[in-house]
């Protein structure tokens, strides 16, 4: 039998990745095994050991897929600088569509694995630090525009925004019936509106005229 | 050999539960196996099958331990009704001590497992609904005391408080260096202070004199 043409090899690799993703979306990292991926493809585990010589290789590929899917997901065009951009970035994280829900479910599932491994814990910690950093310039713009108090701590607000949206993701994943799209968006709008008020980081009256 | 006295049996059961807890704190549910618990105890897996005839029985016991530890954890005495009680309840959730960190780490780890099982997903969803409900009466007291606007949506604020604190738990678990105790408390105080301001749930000017 002739070896498969390069195009076939690429197509098969894509099939494998899609099966890994479907297993993750249904069963999480706790259910990610060569056997489960093989069953999802109707293939043999022997075929899969060609792609993944170890469980570790399978998990590494799964984490790569998650990064790629997250980086490549569609994003909203912010309607304006400052807080509207912060709102759009937070909306891009929430599980508002089936694809967003699957991605979030896989991220939450990955936390068990990542917290059990020092290297993965540090990588994930750095990843969230970078995520918080993407919010800061927009919070600084909001401060410059007077949308939030002039002495607001934008680093702390960025941390608060990421904390709030991740916690809302968890609530929505466990209870989609109580957290449909409109409830998630209303909660997010309320959170963003409160950024405009004085927190503990602003001295009393310092940002008010009276 | 005589069978063990009832007291020995209870002591051994406690040893097993403590070993399960240590494995969970170090490796999460993804690392919870009879073999790992046996190694933690210096016992045989055969001895453990007496307590846990299946992986499912081990996981069920682990989830029970998590519930018991959470229910029995020490709590702060709130200094006053209303928002100070809300603040104290949120502080009781944050990973501020090693014991609180272990408990939170095990909860976050359990999400992978729970999201992969419809029954566990529904149980966890109901559990978080009850947690949100514990905040509502205190938010209603805060509203009565004028600490938050008179038309604030206490149900939505309870959901926001749980979302914020769970997301902060996740950030702190992955990055304890950037989220030491004082940073977590400062973020919480800022969040609670913002509850006093007008959100989107309050009509503009409706809670102000001017």
Automatic annotation (TrEMBL), chains A, B:
Pfam family, one: TetR_N
Chain residues forming the annotated DNA-binding region: 33-52
Taxonomy, superkingdom: Bacteria
InterPro entries: BetI_C (IPR039538), DNA-bd_HTH_TetR-type_CS (IPR023772), Homeodomain-like_sf (IPR009057), HTH-type_TetR-like_transc_reg (IPR050109), HTH_TetR (IPR001647), Tet_transcr_reg_TetR-rel_C_sf (IPR036271)
Domain HTH tetR-type span(s) in chain numbering: 10-70
Gene3D superfamilies: Tetracycline Repressor, domain 2 (1.10.357.10)
Keywords (A to Z) from UniProt: DNA-binding, Repressor, Transcription, Transcription regulation
Protein name (Swiss-Prot/TrEMBL): TetR family transcriptional regulator
Organism in which the protein naturally occurs: Streptomyces toyocaensis
Organism classification: Bacteria, Bacillati, Actinomycetota, Actinomycetes, Kitasatosporales
């Amino acid at each position: 039998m002739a070896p498969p043409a390069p195009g076939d090899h690429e197509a098969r690799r894509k099939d494998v990745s899609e099966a890994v993703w479907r297993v993750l979306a249904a069963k999480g990292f706790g259910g990610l095994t060569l056997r489960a991926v093989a069953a999802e493809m109707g293939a043999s585990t022997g075929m899969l050991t060609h792609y993944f010589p170890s469980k570790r290789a399978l998990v590494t590929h799964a984490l790569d897929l998650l990064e790629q899917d997250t980086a490549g997901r569609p994003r909203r065009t912010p309607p304006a600088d400052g807080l509207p951009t912060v709102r759009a970035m937070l909306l891009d994280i929430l599980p508002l569509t089936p694809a967003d829900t699957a991605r979030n479910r896989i991220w939450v599932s990955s936390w068990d694995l990542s917290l059990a491994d020092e290297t993965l814990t540090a990588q994930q910690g750095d990843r969230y630090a970078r995520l918080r950093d993407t919010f800061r310039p927009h919070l600084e713009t909001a401060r410059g525009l007077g949308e939030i108090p002039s002495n607001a701590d934008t680093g702390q607000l960025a941390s608060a925004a990421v904390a709030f949206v991740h916690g809302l993701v968890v609530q929505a994943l466990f209870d989609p019936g109580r957290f449909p799209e409109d409830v998630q968006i209303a909660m997010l709008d309320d959170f963003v509106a409160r950024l405009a008020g004085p927190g503990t980081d602003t001295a009393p009256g310092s940002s008010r005229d009276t």
